[in-house]
Structure formats: structure tokens, C-alpha cells
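Handout, section B. The chain below has 105 residues.
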Amino acid sequence: MPQPIKVHSQRQPGGRCTLYALYAEELSSSLGLPRRIIHTDCRDAHSEGFPSLLVRDVSLQPSDGVILSPQDICAGLTAAGLDWGAVPDLESRLEAIQEQFLEGV
């Protein structure tokens, strides 16, 4: 069974936890990978606590040091050896999620 896309989230998801869960839902659907939300009280952004998005158990790192962008995610997928080229519009789907999320903030 393939490793799931994981999100480390606080129990009452806040901003980035919610965004990363939305990203994970799209990745799971587009790439046919399982998705898992892990609720934790440990605040440890982009590491072992919340908010974090993990691919193949590696926490993706935001290039701006704050929030994952669609480009960060696609680079992380490539680094993890996942072929996301079969979903050529994946990055634009993730961008739409980010834009819609940021409009609601």
C-alpha cells in the first residue's frame, strides 16, 4: 500500500492546518494516494507537529519559511520521487485552493 499524504493538525484546525488539509485532499484525489490527518497538540510547524504536510513521511518545507505554496508542494512531490506529471494541472489546482483559502482569511 502506498504511503499516505499526511497532515499534522491541531484538533480545532486553524489557518494553515485547514489549508494543508485541503492541499492533502487534492493530492490524495489527484494522485490516488491515501490521506491521513493526524491530530496533535504539538506545535512544530513543518516538522513533527502542526501545521505540517508530509509526503513519504518527509515534512514539506515552505520556501518563505511560513506557509507552503503550490510550488513548494510540487517540488516536494518531485523530491519524493512521485510522478505528478500525469496530472498536468495539479499545480494550478493547488493554486486555486490557495487563492480561495486566502480570500476567506
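Note. Strands lie at 5-9, 35-39, 52-55, 58-59. Compare this with the example in section A.
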